[in-house]
Amino acid sequence: MIIGVPKEIKNNENRVALTPAGVAELKKHGHKVYVQASAGESSGFSDDEYVKAGAETLPTIEEVYAIAEMIIKVKEPIASEYPLIKKDQLLFTYFHFASSEPLTHAMIERGAVCLAYETVEKTDRSLPLLVPMSEVAGRMAIQEGAKYLEKPSGGKGILLGGVPGVPPAKVLVLGGGIVGTQAAKMAAGLGARVVIMDVSLPRLRYLSDIMPPNVTTIMSNHYNICEAIAEADLVVGAVLIPGAKAPHLITRDMLKLMRAGTVVVDVAVDQGGCIETCTPTTHENPTFIIDDIVHYCVANMPGAVPYTSTLALTNATLPYAVQLANKGWKKACSENEELKKGLNVANGKIVYKGVADAWGLELSEVDDIL
Questions:
Q1: CATH for 131-304?
Q2: Angle made by CA atoms 72, 76, 77, in degrees to the nearest 5
Q3: Which reactions does this protein catalyse (predicted)?
């Protein structure tokens, strides 16, 4: 199969979808890999490294899309890329269709085969291609939240871990999944007082067992959230419903319960956000203030640490990419239920329920296209 790796062009997206080691693995299986010139530079990988691994470089993104049967990316295509996508071309990337109706319609119209990292799902319901970036984003949420709690950044002027004789900040984490767990661990490690909420009692029991003493677990409901945000200095939104819009756990009118200078970091913003007032921002302009509350809503947080993120992502995606390249997408998805659940759009039809529900569109049976 002919595989293309374009350079990411989303604002301040510094990751690349494939490392030179990934290229070498695909070449070992007899596939042809084309990498756009300088695609890996921001992640620390030179064109020479890709060439030594067996790739050929192409100067423009147009040439990569034109030649490739499968495009491997990190983030969803943006509007300038839509015309480059060919009918029946396989795109393997993060899509988050439920947060973008224009993207959904564009992929239907282009006739692309869209296999989304975020909905590839194992039998235990874990999301193997979302986990590595969720781990990065969860840890970064605290790193960035701590920064924006500083007064020059619009925050309260609170040091997350405090100092002897001065109490540490209070951190509220909404959601006890991968993002929430990593965020709570980081905040606790820095000495903050942490509350983590979830709707699952078994999950809360597990978190209670593994977390240090400065982390408290509380059942997530509207009443408890209202109580907690009134005390919190930093709130991390870490709620995920695979392939669907995140629910709004904090609404606009709830902001008045929070103290001025509180920071909210909505990691779920690429799935619509679990804080109503959050809209996607970029690393270039990461924050905005509503009702004296600092909102950090960068939709590609791991892009700020591209070396770590690229290695972590390729470790997870490469085995699936090899299957798709070796067998073709139809056979690979027919034989692998995990990949099958990754199909969101194919042959001009939506085949993933969460996406169809998000935009009120017709859902087609995935088995009908395989």
A1: 3.40.50.720
A2: 90
A3: L-alanine + NAD(+) + H2O = pyruvate + NH4(+) + NADH + H(+)
